Every structure is written in structure tokens, then in C-alpha cells.
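Journal club side-thread
Mid-discussion, someone asked how the predicted structure for our own chain would compare to the paper's figures. Pasting it here so we can look after the session.
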Amino acid sequence: MSDEPFLIVGLGNPGPDYSGNRHNVGFMVADLLAERAGGRFKLHKSRAEVVEGRIGGYPGLRVVLAKPMTYMNNSGSPVGSLRDFFKIPPANIVVIHDELDIPFGALRLKCGGGDNGHNGLRSISRLIGTRDYLRVRFGIGRPPGRQDPADYVLKDFSAAERKELPFLVDRAADATEALMSESLPNAQNTYHAG
């Protein structure tokens, strides 16, 4: 394990109007990870809220948790600034984000690949100059009927989904920790079952 810290980025939109949105599930997981690390988010000059610490049962794992305070479409700018400031290689960047093409609550872990229409990922890949970073993809499912996906992601989770959400966010936080402490294939074997 290298001495370089991991940069864990939870994606979302800033402000109370968005806090319960499906698009903000990355923020929800980052908040739980910060709580586990015993830290509180503080505004960093990169235009992200940041917590530096160590993760749970892995005292050797230094992490920088970040929530970009730009809107989703501009997430790459704070991520690029944090990467440069903390000198973090792309292999140590983990982005937690909502994913329309995965059923609600299912997790998929991967490294690299396209952005699948996700503006936050597109912005990050463009600004850091590579797609080869780790992703924790949190399934939110497809919108019902003919609802526009852009509207769907900016709606709050349904009442039924909110009942399950604390458990699912907890599982996503566990998966993020596993991604850093184990190999990608091991973490996939554990968390792709759901």
C-alpha cells in the first residue's frame, strides 16, 4: 500500500434544495465516511468541502474526502485542484456517484470507462485528463414512464426508497473502504452480489 492518500469524491449539488435528490447520493456516502473518520467538512480553497483523516479499521489509509461545491457539471475543477494540491495519482481517486442504468440500491465498482451521460464524471475526466480512476456507482434506477432523466435525478428519493437509503448508503461506504483497502476484484466480488 502506498503512502499517497486516496481522494474520495462524493458527487452532488450544493445547497439544501438538492440535499435529498437522487443526484446527491455521492454527498450522502461522503457524509457517512466523514462521520466514520471523525471529521467535519470544511471549505477548502479548491471550492470543495474537505475532510482529511484515516478510514475506520484501516489506520494506514490516509484519505481526503471531498464534496465539490460547484454544481455537478463543474465537479472536475475542484477535483483537479485537490489532486494537484495533495499530489494524488489517478489510481487513488475514487468517485462516488448516482447511476441510472443500475437498479435502485445496487452497487457497481469499476475503474475507468465512459461517463454514461453523467455530467459530473464527464467534467472530472476532462479536467484531470484521464478516465482511469475508481468509481462507486450507486444505482438509482431508470425514471418511470417518460419522465426526463434530467428531472428524475433532481427529484428526492421516494418514501419507499428513503426507508432503505440508510442501509444502502452504509453499504456504499463499506464498499468505498473496501475499494481502498483491498483489490478492485475482491471488492467487486463482495459488493456486486446485491
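Post-session note: The chain has a mean pLDDT of 92.
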